[in-house]
Amino acid sequence: MENELGPEYASVKHTSFLVKYGASCCRAEKIEVCADPADAKICHCLTCQRLHGAPMQWTAIFHKHDVRITKGTDCLKCYNSEQKIQARIPPCKVSCGLCGTPIADEGHRRWLAYPSLFAFGFPPKVPQAFLPTCHIFCGSRLIDMSDDLPKWSGHKNNPERIF
Ligand SMILES: [Zn+2]
Ligand SMILES: [Zn+2]
Hints:
The protein has one helix spanning 46-52, and strands at 21-23, 30-33, 39-43, 57-63, 67-71, 76-79, 92-96, 102-106, 110-113, 135-136. The chain has a single domain, classed as Alpha-Beta Complex (glutathione-dependent formaldehyde- activating enzyme (gfa)). By secondary structure, it is mainly beta. Strand 8 and strand 9 (110-113) form a beta hairpin. The protein is built from 1 helix and 10 strands; from the N terminus they run βββαβββββββ. Bound molecules: zinc ion (ZN) (2 copies). One zinc ion (ZN) binds next to loops.
């Protein structure tokens, strides 16, 4: 069971799993997905700013059953920012225990992967499905964005679009 994330995820034993995209950090972890993300967004919330050391965070949102980790599950480090404890209690931040790279947000039903870990070639060709469709939590943004994407003050569609 070393390399199994849990029953809600794709299994490493699934021979029908066709790898669509792969992601890794220092090579301690190997993450595979078999589908396009359902959505992608940029988050400007205070927690993402602090825990990523960046003004915003870009995530591609996958159904858990489309995701598996084939290497390094035992090396994952998880942090639940609400309870301020290192534990795999969703929603939590998942990072590599070896190099410290943030890997994903594990939600209750979704796996929010960080696209910068994916192999998109060089120069990278980011697939359309990974491109963000909106900015969320813009109420706490540190930098103004000049793109045409919808910008929400909190969650998507809630409470209001601010510009
Ligand atoms: Zn790593
Ligand atoms: Zn956030």
